[in-house]
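To the wet lab folks,

You asked to see what we're planning to order before we commit. Fair enough. Below is the target structure as tokens, and below that is the sequence we designed to fit it. If anything looks off to you, flag it before the synthesis order goes out.
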């Protein structure tokens, strides 16, 4: 991972614009799940750290743009770039990061550059669907899962596929692993938005619902509520929730064991991921860290 961080720093330096370097250095790196996945699948390949750095730059760019779109004030516990520097700067920094990443991607096998580039098209479509769906109270579970696949899982799928191509492993199996890992990751994210405290999350709790995002636990909850309660839930959609309403939502989720059923969904996806890669201990352990994480 040290090498990935060094390469990221070098790529930013190569952009040769000190203001961009300065802004980038203030960003928190996060878990580097995508780079870790690539290094785990292709540990011996000399270009794996560069590929890891590329996808982390793409991921960072997507989050910079996402925070503008979501009007998020916090990212990983610190003020977002759009909050401190304004949306224009956040968008342009994102553009610099992902165009630099794409320049570097051209040195890879076309199967890899195509897979990563196409995944960015899909994640952009997923983001567009997410925004569209947040405008009203979406109860369509299949549509929600499709959007999750596009918005989050597709880049992780492309990472696993590409790393497998690098070292000549079974790329279809690794793509299936990555897709299911990505979906499980996002469902756990949706759960943590409800269960984790604000200090751990680095953003307000139940923030997704306030942003208009009807995530899997809310879709499940809606199905279990009676007519009056359904209306109460809908009336809270896309609003800043007061403590009373937060308490009510949490108590109803407890009553119907909603968090448990969302976890069961994430666990089933993890089983599918494991089924694709068999007894690869390192890839199994990435699954463990995703499902058991607290932030
Ligand atoms: C986070 O979702 C957002 C994403 C994982 C993808 C965002 C994608 C784009 C903005 C497309 C543009 C892509 C590039 C490369 C410029 P979230 O809002 O549910 O998660 P959060 O709580 O972490 O904000
Ligand atoms: Mg967001």
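Sequence we intend to order:
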């Amino acid at each position: 991972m040290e090498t990935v961080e060094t390469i990221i720093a070098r790529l930013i330096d190569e952009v040769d614009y000190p203001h961009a370097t300065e802004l980038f250095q203030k960003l928190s790196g996060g878990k580097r799940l995508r780079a870790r996945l690539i290094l785990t699948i292709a540990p011996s390949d000399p270009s794996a750290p560069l590929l890891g750095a590329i996808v982390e730059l793409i991921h960072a760019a997507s989050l910079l743009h996402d925070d503008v779109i979501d009007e998020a004030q916090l990212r990983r516990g610190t003020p977002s770039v759009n909050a401190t520097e304004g949306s224009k700067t956040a968008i342009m920094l994102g553009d610099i990061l992902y165009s630099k990443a794409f320049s570097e991607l051209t040195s890879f096998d076309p199967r890899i550059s195509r897979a990563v580039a196409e995944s960015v098209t899909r994640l952009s479509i997923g983001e567009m669907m997410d925004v569209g769906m947040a405008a009203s109270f979406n109860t369509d579970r299949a549509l929600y899962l499709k959007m999750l696949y596009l918005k989050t899982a597709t880049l992780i799928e492309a990472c696993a596929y590409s790393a497998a191509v690098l070292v000549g492993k079974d790329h279809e199996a690794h793509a299936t692993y990555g897709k299911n890992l990505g979906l499980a990751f996002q469902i756990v994210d949706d759960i943590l938005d409800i269960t984790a405290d604000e200090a751990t999350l680095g953003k307000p709790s139940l923030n997704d619902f306030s942003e208009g995002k009807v995530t899997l636990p809310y879709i499940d909850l809606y199905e279990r509520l009676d007519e009056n309660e359904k209306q109460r839930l809908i009336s809270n959609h896309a609003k800043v929730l007061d403590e009373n309403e937060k308490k009510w939502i949490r108590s109803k989720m407890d009553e119907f064991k909603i968090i448990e059923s969302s976890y069961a969904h994430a666990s089933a996806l993890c089983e599918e991921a494991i089924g694709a890669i068999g007894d690869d201990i390192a890839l199994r352990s990435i699954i463990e860290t995703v499902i058991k994480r607290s932030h």
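Structural context that might help your review: The radius of gyration is 19 Å. Residues 58, 61-62, 65-66, 70, 72, 94, 98, 120, 123-124, 127, 151-152 surround farnesyl diphosphate (ligand 1) (CB under 6 Å).

Thanks,
Computational group
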